[in-house]
């Protein structure tokens, strides 16, 4: 620990020191190599396994002189030795073997025994070291290559969905940027909830889409404190370690070619519970007769009116007859809105993925080159992109005990779109209208009055303005948005082995990402024409925005630098083995938010553009008000995060029976307060393993493994948006005219990470001749020091009596069960894999008046972070429903009595959860239970797998009819048809009667109905996530085929819901949204 | 063994290295989008933030509003909030943020913040005057506000008891995580004096703007502080030093009595500008104590410059402020401090000279210098003139407290609904209670 304390800081010096040591020891070693007197003698031999097959890559060390070597792929070796020397032969998969050299003239044959129970041992990578799952007390969830290949998403994280313990949140959470996935539930309220993503050794800064899933060997999720706390202040939300495929020494030339095509279906728009066109027109008639919105006809902003409104106006003025209007309505009724959108704006999404990798290696050098090309075609017309990845990996051993590893990754990711409107996003004003046609019978584009009334744009400018019509069908041809992301990541590692048990590793990584965006709106586009017209001066027709295209370019970049020096110690005594490492590292990430610039009057060829005055205001054409031209240049700010960290980790096991894990880490960062950096307040973890099967008293023969594990420890979590520094604004004093500064956010020298303490208790087992294996993990989490408002002793700063501090807390607990059962082995191999996750978490402390009442949940629908003491962060409370009254008004309860005074219900501040309270708590919006059930059947070369996923124990708010939303935004629910229409209907329906917007408490009435308990449904459901079918051809060497293995596969993903609790068949994950369409893939994987 | 030596070397280098450049690496600002006040100009900017933070609407009003220079009508009383009613009749009442306490601690924070960040800026030949100005100003502001807080929320200074009397929270750092603790009255006054003295060599002799502290202001502040501690020789010494820098007075003969605001802000007497936070409105609605009003001679121009008719009574209109009530330092106060101290030291003629120099500017041409047989007689005159000159300047409350220590026995009386409320001389309530929420949040003891 003293060592750890000392290596706290100053990485640069450390690195210099390390290199110096390296050099000096190098010399010493080189001297030794030169010192080859004729009397030197060599021993030769071969290392084989119990079956007599040669073992390559076994390490042979002469304990006497510390010379070492490795066996080649024939299993043979040659090493300086004399008789009487003791040689130690070790290999990761075999028991270490020592022997005394008796006769150097005779080759020795060394037979290594497989490590017991380690045939199926899982090697997990923490980013700092690899360890075997059997020795570690930590909770790891490893997703191996086969499981990663079950799904074909070009995004590596999406391939973890449904096959890991990660929960992918389908909710669109307001104000939460990030990956929307959690490991073991939420552990932050106002902070950052994403797990840390690590690529090989260091946190990955770039866009996760850049990583080519084909380059990935496995993914390890570090779930508990013992696994994750080595990542210190970033570990609190869990860690996802992505491990790339590695080249190996002594590996024959290897070529892999993969290709796949994924074809998606068009979205099923008809499943949306939308109001029918007939009902919609009925409502429009009703509103028109109530003169709703008719004041707009005199509005100088010329807001657009819907086609039905325009028709009704003409009818009222007598311009058209009642037969004309009936015919017009009939024509509108024939319009199929789904088909209109599908034809105009959608295309079949297709993803093509191609990947090639070659690797090879001899005993000194191993290498790998991988390339991939992805072609993506999105669901919306013209959305397309491509991605190229190149990866190089080299490692070589200039000396037996020195390894140098060089890696480089490059990604070029292009995506473009044409600003295609999403479903329902072609609006009149801001109103969705279901009967719009985008093309006439000849396929010609039809103009839509998006902003302004047609009768205005018909004549405005008397021909001296640009055409002011919007043609949704063709608009996309003139608009193009292109985004190019490039990412370059390079790292170097030097590994130096000395003293037989020590390894010094130096790592450095530089990552660089560039993002450029280009948005071009041609002069033909409505966007450009509208903008030019708007800034045309009335009467004079002077153009303040010149004719030409509009180009907006943006540039952002991010860099990350990491350096690490680590000393590993590995030693095996007779029954004891020790693996320990300690190190220090630095990390700097620098993110430049995009600069942007807009060019008007732009012509690509010959290149020209106009200089624009952004600072002046210009009169606008429509209403004459003055406005500045949008798009003034923006320089993005730079965010820099720096870390200095030291850490220590050890794993001591005795007789493979008992293992103790201990780790500690200290982080300093420029985002923490000074006091935090100065404090010695380490993250730590401790754990123990007891392998009961190794005990002498254990004699249950059917149980081949029974192991208890338990860990405790602390991890942190950071919100990069927080700063420990005071934030101020600059102004000038109105009286003295002196420049002044005003502090708006206080400096908090004690600001620090949020922290999560976790206790994990687990059992691993294996029974019935390896037929069943699994693990059960039970954990408690207590997250403290969470960011939240805190009352401030304003003696310290008289300006405010509250401040954001590390004061809030949460508690959680959960259960994870993983069970793999080999139901049948021969001739059909049938495996079932059950993943079960249970998690509940709730807010323990949070200081705000809102956190005291469950009424805060009402109106959120469980989609926004709502801290209420004792409740989950995302939860649903509802108004108690009292049925419709004889007027079709929904009724609630107030003081145990039925009422329609919704305002009073809402304002009620005390809510008991008794039977007559007006609002009561219903439950979590996040599932308490989720998981998967994966079945794989293999027969000869065939393989069939299917994954059933499930979520239980949560609720959702069913989409319902809101009259306000219907009148203003045109969004209605199909239940409009079932609304209360006449007395007596209240017995058969819960849908409130249609009332006009001047009705008593119109808005509150909508809110009450929407969030009343009848519209809160259980969200339990079971889904078929994917089905995979494959056939593998294997070619033995005898066949003299260059091809070793060939797999053909087909995959179906998102087949859909199997069962859901609600009777309406609403998919609870996508209530009121377009459900993701099914996808079919087929492809080939080959190995030469 | 060789390897162990190497390892040892390595560890040693680690150990040396760790103390060197780490802090600089982590000092890097995490975003250039946020303006962190760290440069000298930034810190000066913080101290120049006069409105609502450093100078204007800052100093406590509760003491003045609890004093005996004014009264309010029953109708006004009835329309006040309960808190204001209670304060008016010296009844202990719960009160919360924002208040006098919070307002006084805002400039204390800016001062402490500046002092902390200043340690990270090197003082060079090029920036020395700006650097000194920030440091001196910060010390001055801290002292100035501590003194106001002591006057209001602690008992008057008394060498017998001040080491145990409850003082205020002497916050000397900007870290709000440090808990607030009340120190003794003795420590409080010593801090005020130490800070002010530390400021003197750093500040310019006269300020570029009355919002800014200066040596002139520091001497005046010391005179004020020592007077309230009843250390009259020191008070006299610093009063003289202040007046040496400038002793100019406004000649009231040149002011317009008809004006709604006869005295302009930033006038020639203003040494340092602050005005009071209007936590309570009773003072603003206050009518001048009738006996006090009638004590102004008809040839005393203050009678028409300071006051206006309001119904049957008179209201105050003679503040040196921009708006509200001036509470800063001005030369008239320093003349009175000098006069009082000289009288207490037995220098009758010196005392009368100072007093008459001031009064000459306050009267019309009919002014005849005041005379006294003894220094004691002179002192009575001076204290009477002090109350008349410095009305509504935030000085009366501490004057009552300190004069009662000298044995003046000033009891305060209010009449509401024909009930008489009395605050006896030296009552515990003269140390006004701290805000209720502060007492709840911190473990600081409430005043007895």
Describe the structure.
The complex is a heterodimer of chains A (1088) and B (448). Chain A is mainly β and 1088 residues long. Chain A is 12% helix and 43% strand. In chain A, 40% of the residues are buried. Chain B has helices spanning 2-20, 22-26, 40-47, 62-65, 74-78, 82-88, 100-118, 128-153, 185-199, 215-229, 232-245, 290-294, 302-305, 331-344, 348-362, 375-389, 396-405, 436-441; strands at residues 70-71, 166-169, 182-184, 270-272, 287-288, 307-310, 313-316, 329-330, 412-416, 419-423. With 448 residues, chain B is mainly alpha-helical. Helices cover 46% and strands 8% of the residues of chain B. Chain B has one domain: Serine Threonine Protein Phosphatase 5, Tetratricopeptide repeat (Alpha Horseshoe), CATH 1.25.40. In chain B, strand 6 (307-310) and strand 7 (313-316) form a beta hairpin. In chain B, helix 8 (128-153) runs parallel beside helix 10. A two-stranded antiparallel ribbon of chain B has the order 1-5. A two-stranded antiparallel ribbon of chain B has the order 2-3. The model of chain B has no long low-confidence stretch (mean pLDDT 92). The interface between A and B is large, with 69 and 72 residues.
Oligomer: heterodimer
pLDDT < 50 stretches of chain A: 1-13, 15-38
The proportion of residues forming helix of chain A, as a percent range, comes to: 10-25%
What proportion of the residues of chain B form beta strands (DSSP E)? 5-15%
Low-pLDDT segments of chain B: none
Provide the number of structural domains of chain B: 1
CATH topology label of chain B: Serine Threonine Protein Phosphatase 5, Tetratricopeptide repeat
CATH architecture name of chain B: Alpha Horseshoe
End-to-end distance of chain B: 72 Å
Which pair of protein chains has the largest interface, and what are the residue counts?
A-B, 69 and 72 residues
Q: How large is the share of residues in beta strands of chain A?
A: 35-45%
Alpha-beta classification of chain B: mainly alpha
Helix tally of chain B?
Answer: 18
Largest sheet descriptor of chain A: 22 strands, antiparallel, barrel
Number of distinct helices of chain A = 15
């Amino acid at each position: 620990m003293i060592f750890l304390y000392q290596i706290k800081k100053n990485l640069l010096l450390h690195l210099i020191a390390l290199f110096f040591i390296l050099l000096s020891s190098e010399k010493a070693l080189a001297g030794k190599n030169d010192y080859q007197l004729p009397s030197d003698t060599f021993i030769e031999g071969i290392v084989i396994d119990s079956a007599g097959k040669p073992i390559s890559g076994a390490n042979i060390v002469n304990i006497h002189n510390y010379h070492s070597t490795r066996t080649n792929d024939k299993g043979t070796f040659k090493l300086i030795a004399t008789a009487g020397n003791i040689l130690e032969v070790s290999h990761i998969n075999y028991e270490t073997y020592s022997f005394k050299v008796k006769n150097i003239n005779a080759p020795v044959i060394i037979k290594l025994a497989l490590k017991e129970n380690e045939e199926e041992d899982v090697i997990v990578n923490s980013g700092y070291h690899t360890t075997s799952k059997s020795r570690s007390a930590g909770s790891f969830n490893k997703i191996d290559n086969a499981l990663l290949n079950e799904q074909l998403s070009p995004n590596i994280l999406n391939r973890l969905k449904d096959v890991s313990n990660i929960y992918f949140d389908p909710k669109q959470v307001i104000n939460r940027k990030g990956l929307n996935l959690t490991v073991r539930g939420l552990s932050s309220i106002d902070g950052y909830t994403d797990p840390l993503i690590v690529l090989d050794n260091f946190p990955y800064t770039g866009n996760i889409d850049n990583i080519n899933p084909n380059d990935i060997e496995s993914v390890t999720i570090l779930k508990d404190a013992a696994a994750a706390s080595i990542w210190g202040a970033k570990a609190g939300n869990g860690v996802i370690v992505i491990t790339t495929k590695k080249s190996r020494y002594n590996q024959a030339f290897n070529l892999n070619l993969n290709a796949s095509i994924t074809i998606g279906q068009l979205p099923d728009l008809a499943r949306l519970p939308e109001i029918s066109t007939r009902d919609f027109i009925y409502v429009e008639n009703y509103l028109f007769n109530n003169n709703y919105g008719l004041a707009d006809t005199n509005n100088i902003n010329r807001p657009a009116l819907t086609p039905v409104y325009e028709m009704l106006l003409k009818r009222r003025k007598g311009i058209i007859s009642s037969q004309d209007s009936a015919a017009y309505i009939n024509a509108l009724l024939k319009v199929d809105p789904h088909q209109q959108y599908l034809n105009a704006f959608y295309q079949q999404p297709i993803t093509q993925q191609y990947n090639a990798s070659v690797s090879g290696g001899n005993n000194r050098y191993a290498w790998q080159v991988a390339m991939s090309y992805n072609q993506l075609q999105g669901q919306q017309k013209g959305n397309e992109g491509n991605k190229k990845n190149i990866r190089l990996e080299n490692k070589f051993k200039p000396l037996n005990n020195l390894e140098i590893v060089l890696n480089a990754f490059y990604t070029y990711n292009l995506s473009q779109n044409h600003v295609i409107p999403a479903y329902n996003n072609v609006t009149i004003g801001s109103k969705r209208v279901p009967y719009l046609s985008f093309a006439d019978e000849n396929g010609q584009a039809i103009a839509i009055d998006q902003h302004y009334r047609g009768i205005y744009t018909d004549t405005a400018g008397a021909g001296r303005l640009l055409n002011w019509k919007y043609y949704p069908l063709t608009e996309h041809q003139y608009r193009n948005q292109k985004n190019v992301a490039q990412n370059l990541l390079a790292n170097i590692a030097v590994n130096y082995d000395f003293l037989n048990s020590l390894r010094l590793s130096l790592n450095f990584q530089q990552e660089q990402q560039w993002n450029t965006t280009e948005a071009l709106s041609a002069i033909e586009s409505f966007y450009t024409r509208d903008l030019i017209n708007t800034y045309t001066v009335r009467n004079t027709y002077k153009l303040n925005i010149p004719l030409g295209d509009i180009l907006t370019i943006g540039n952002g970049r991010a860099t990350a630098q990491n350096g690490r020096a680590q000393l590993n110690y590995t030693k095996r005594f007779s029954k004891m083995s020790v693996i320990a490492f300690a190190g220090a590292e630095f990390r700097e990430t620098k993110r430049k938010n995009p600069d942007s610039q807009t060019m008007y009057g732009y012509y690509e060829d010959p290149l020209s553009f106009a200089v624009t005055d952004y600072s002046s205001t210009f009169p606008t054409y429509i209403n004459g008000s003055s406005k500045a031209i949008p798009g003034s240049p923006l320089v993005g700010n730079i965010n820099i995060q720096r870390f200095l960290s030291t850490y220590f980790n050890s794993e001591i096991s005795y007789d493979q029976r008992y293992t103790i894990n201990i780790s500690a880490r200290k982080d300093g960062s420029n985002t923490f307060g000074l006091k935090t950096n100065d404090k010695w307040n380490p993250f730590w973890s401790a754990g123990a393993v007891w392998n009961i099967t190794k005990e002498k008293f254990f004699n249950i023969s059917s149980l081949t493994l029974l192991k208890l594990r338990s860990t405790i420890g602390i991890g942190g979590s950071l919100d990069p948006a927080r700063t420990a520094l005071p934030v101020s604004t600059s102004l000038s004093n109105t009286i003295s005219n002196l420049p002044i500064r005003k502090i708006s956010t206080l400096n908090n020298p004690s600001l620090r990470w949020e922290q999560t303490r976790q206790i994990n208790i687990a059992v691993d087992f294996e029974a019935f001749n390896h037929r069943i294996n699994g693990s059960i993990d039970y954990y408690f989490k207590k997250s403290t020091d969470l960011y939240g408002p805190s009352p401030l002793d304003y003696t310290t700063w008289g300006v405010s009596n509250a401040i954001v501090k590390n004061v809030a807390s949460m508690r959680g607990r959960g259960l994870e069960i993983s069970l793999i059962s080999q139901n049948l082995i021969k001739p059909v191999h049938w495996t079932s894999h059950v993943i079960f996750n249970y998690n509940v978490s709730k807010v323990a402390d949070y200081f705000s008046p809102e956190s005291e009442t469950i009424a805060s949940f009402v109106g959120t629908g469980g989609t926004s972070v709502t801290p209420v003491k004792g409740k989950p962060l995302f939860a649903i409370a509802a108004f108690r429903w009292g049925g419709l009254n004889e007027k079709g008004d929904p009724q609630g309860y107030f003081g145990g009595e039925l009422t329609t005074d919704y305002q009073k219900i809402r304002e009620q501040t005390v809510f008991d959860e008794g039977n007559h309270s007006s609002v009561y708590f219903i439950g979590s919006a996040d599932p308490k239970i989720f998981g998967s059930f994966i079945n794989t059947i293999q027969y000869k070369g065939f393989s069939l797998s299917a994954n059933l996923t499930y979520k239980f124990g949560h609720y959702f708010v069913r989409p319902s009819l809101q009259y306000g939303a219907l009148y203003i935004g045109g969004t209605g629910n199909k239940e409009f048809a079932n609304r209360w229409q006449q007395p007596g209907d209240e017995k058969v329906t819960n849908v409130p009667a249609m009332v006009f917007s001047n009705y008593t408490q119109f808005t509150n009435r909508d809110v009450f109905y929407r969030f009343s308990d009848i519209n809160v449904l259980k969200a339990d459901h079971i889904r078929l996530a994917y089905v995979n079918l494959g056939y593998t051809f294997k070619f033995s060497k005898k066949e003299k085929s260059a091809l070793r293995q060939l797999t053909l596969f087909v995959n179906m993903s998102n087949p859909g819901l199997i069962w859901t609790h609600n009777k309406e068949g609403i998919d609870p994950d996508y209530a009121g949204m377009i459900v993701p369409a099914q996808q079919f893939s087929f492809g080939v994987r080959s190995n030469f | 063994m060789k390897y162990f030596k190497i390892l040892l070397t390595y560890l040693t280098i680690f150990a040396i290295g760790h103390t060197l450049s780490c802090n600089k690496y982590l000092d890097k600002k995490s975003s250039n989008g946020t303006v962190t006040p760290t440069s000298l100009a930034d810190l000066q900017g913080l101290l120049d933030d006069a409105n609502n933070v450093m100078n204007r609407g800052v100093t406590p009003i509760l003491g003045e509003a609890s004093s005996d220079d004014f009264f309010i009508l029953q109708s006004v009383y009835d329309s006040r909030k309960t808190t204001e009613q209670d304060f008016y009749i010296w009844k202990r009442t719960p009160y919360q943020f924002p208040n006098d306490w919070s307002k006084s601690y805002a400039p204390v924070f800016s001062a402490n913040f500046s002092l902390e960040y200043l340690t990270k800026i090197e003082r060079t030949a090029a920036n020395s005057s700006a650097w000194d100005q920030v440091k001196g100003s910060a010390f001055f502001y801290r002292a100035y506000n501590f003194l106001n807080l002591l006057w209001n929320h602690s008992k008057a200074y008394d060498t017998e008891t001040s080491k145990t009397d409850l003082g205020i929270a002497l916050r000397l750092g900007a870290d709000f995580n440090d808990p607030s603790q009340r120190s003794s009255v003795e420590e409080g006054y010593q801090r005020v004096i130490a800070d002010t003295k530390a400021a003197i060599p750093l500040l310019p002799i006269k300020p570029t703007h009355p919002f800014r502290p200066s040596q002139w202001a520091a001497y005046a502040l010391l005179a004020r502080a020592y007077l309230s501690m009843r250390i009259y020789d020191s008070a006299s010494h610093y009063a003289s030093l202040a007046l040496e820098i400038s002793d100019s007075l406004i000649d009231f003969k040149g002011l317009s009595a008809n004006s709604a605001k006869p005295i302009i802000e930033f006038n020639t007497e203003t040494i340092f500008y602050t005005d009071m936070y209007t936590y309570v409105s009773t003072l603003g609605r206050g009518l001048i104590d009738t006996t006090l009003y009638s004590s102004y001679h008809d040839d005393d121009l203050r009678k028409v410059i300071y006051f206006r008719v309001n119904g049957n009574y008179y209201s105050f209109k003679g503040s040196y402020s921009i708006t509200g009530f001036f509470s800063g330092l001005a030369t008239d106060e320093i003349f009175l401090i000098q006069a009082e101290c000289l009288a207490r030291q037995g220098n009758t003629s010196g005392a009368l000279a100072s007093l008459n120099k001031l009064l000459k500017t306050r009267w019309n041409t009919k002014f005849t210098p005041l005379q006294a047989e003894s220094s004691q007689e002179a002192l009575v005159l001076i204290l009477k003139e002090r109350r008349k000159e410095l009305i509504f300047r935030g000085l009366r409350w501490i004057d009552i407290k300190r004069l009662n220590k000298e044995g003046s026995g000033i009891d305060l009386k209010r009449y509401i609904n024909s009930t008489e409320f009395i605050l006896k001389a030296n009552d515990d309530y003269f140390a006004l209670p701290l805000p209720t929420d502060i007492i709840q949040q911190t473990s600081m003891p409430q005043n007895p």
